[in-house]
Amino acid sequence: MREYAAILNELAQALRPMSRGVTWFEELASEDQFAVLRDLAGYSTQRNVARDIALRGVTGWAVSHAAADPA
């Protein structure tokens, strides 16, 4: 099990505040962010989340955070 699987699980169950999850994710190296998103997409398909809904969720998060990034 990857070490971040427990964090994603806690976020999914609302056992960890999403704001802490966002901070944790943003502090990861880009290759680790990619791995987390890849696995998160896999978890989503295991839960029978429709592909378009999963993509909207991930891309919506990325767009909203990119817009807030002044760099």
Query: What is the number of helices?
Result: 4
β-strand percent reads: under 5%
Which regions contain 5 or more consecutive residues with pLDDT less than 50? none
- The percent range for helix content is over 70%
User: N-to-C terminal Cα separation, in Å?
Assistant: 34 Å
Q: Which overall shape is indicated by the principal axes computed on the Cα atoms? A: globular
Question: What can be said about the biggest beta sheet?
Answer: none
Structural class: mainly alpha
- Count every beta strand, where a strand is a DSSP E run of 2 or more residues: 0
Q: What's the overall average pLDDT, rounded?
A: 75
The helix/strand order is HHHH
Cα-atom radius of gyration: 12 Å
Short key terms for the protein model shown above:
mainly alpha
